[in-house]
């Protein structure tokens, strides 16, 4: 018996030496299977994240749910306030079963009370980016089919700008104020204050299933204007359970500084509800106050995107840098060098990098703490959650196929397009009222006739140790300052200026920065010169800060394909270096509020990090 035990131990040791991540790989796949089974059970019983919240109201009514500035709200108080919001909608007579209500506000507890209130009466919320204006704002409202808009008081001017169009479409408009003097705009806070806080009858949401939409969350795409991804109740569960998978427990306090209108921000809240823990909500990220907040609220888990971690590392060092209770950081987009600097400076905080998309049907988690990786590529994971990294032709903008018409997987170390199989267990719900864009995200006959895959639009590579790394984004979207920027939308805004005739917008790499900075190659109207001040004022008025082109290149003509599509590949490779580009170059100068010439000296200062962009 002893001999067999020793032999078994030696075999296990041998396997682990050859496959040191085996146990972690198996544990991760088992955790995902368990998560899938839980969601399937919820689908069978029609148990939603709202039901989980209401259960917690009964079992832990006095536990804090939200910390915000110097306020705190218990689970019971959140229930009362969301009941008032729900009744205010109903009593106003503008919202009935299944209607879509657009929420246009930044991070504040009221955002959550409104959304929970809508869930209680069986209505999805269209979560509008609070930075959008004019054409984009109207587009987002139209594609969601919203019949009601609720905006914060500070966004009243943005609402006024499109108010005639809203009235034409018979959209009821509320402002989060006690009263409002603007004709055609009603106040909402007074209606909430007058409404009853009694529980909302479950009958009002009896029509819902786990496939019903709980929210529409907007994501930029190749069409240029944002698309409204359909987030069903089952998808809310899938996102919410991520925190549990990363190791968040019932004793944690989590810090949320990202916008609630993004899936990354909202699902920290729903994940906290799943865990039954408090959320520290901040209206806007502040690097200088980040750790003070963590100490003030005894935060144990923080949420990040790559930019947040870099900003924190760039703050002046303090003796108190390691004086906090944070043990875990959950997020995406952190570079290996920033990861290394972060833990060296702020302590041995576990980093749990994940990969996923709002509309996607697949997720990765770096459970091995491999710096820079998204997760691991394993046979077991691929078997239960089918995906592939396939060869991609960047010039043609489509996957490469063999002589039989099927896609080919890449070799180790070679970047390729991540695609994930669409099945009943891993559905792709697409975009509301946009069947064309929904179909564009689907790939047919990938490995066999009749199969169907989701095109993530992301290029990944797998190394020799089976770790997966992000390589780049494909198509007409790039990421800057934690936001997706749609090139066609920016181009549409640029050509509205008097002097710009055509615009080719793309993202360029800037040393020391995550993502890509916006750059536009433009041609000018015949007989007109480039009016830098007018263009600066125009992009400032019509584009959110993250979407404004940081660099402009003035060209006589733009390169196009035989089918008149703009060619970006060459321009992206050339970047913004005036030593290699003979065309006039300009950069967005925030201090002078102008586009000023991009000289070699200015270029060197940007690369060195002396000029912030």
From TrEMBL:
Localization of this protein: Cell membrane
Segments forming domain AMP-dependent synthetase/ligase: 57-365
Topological relation to the membrane, as annotated: Multi-pass membrane protein
Keywords on record: Cell membrane, Fatty acid metabolism, Ligase, Lipid metabolism, Lipid transport, Membrane, Nucleotide-binding, Signal, Transmembrane, Transmembrane helix, Transport
AMP-binding enzyme C-terminal domain location: 489-565
Pfam families: AMP-binding, AMP-binding_C
Organism for this UniProt entry: Pundamilia nyererei
Family: Belongs to the ATP-dependent AMP-binding enzyme family.
GO biological process terms held by the UniProt record: long-chain fatty acid import into cell
Top-level enzyme category: ligase
InterPro entries: AMP-bd_C, AMP-bd_C_sf, AMP-binding_CS, AMP-dep_synth/lig_dom, ANL_N_sf
GO CC entries: endoplasmic reticulum membrane; plasma membrane
Main location: membrane
Phylogenetic placement of the source organism: Eukaryota, Metazoa, Chordata, Craniata, Vertebrata
Domain of life: Eukaryota
Recorded GO MF terms: long-chain fatty acid transmembrane transporter activity; long-chain fatty acid-CoA ligase activity; nucleotide binding
PROSITE patterns: AMP_BINDING
Catalytic activity annotation: tetracosanoate + ATP + CoA = tetracosanoyl-CoA + AMP + diphosphate; a very long-chain fatty acid + ATP + CoA = a very long-chain fatty acyl-CoA + AMP + diphosphate; a long-chain fatty acid + ATP + CoA = a long-chain fatty acyl-CoA + AMP + diphosphate
Record's protein name: long-chain-fatty-acid--CoA ligase
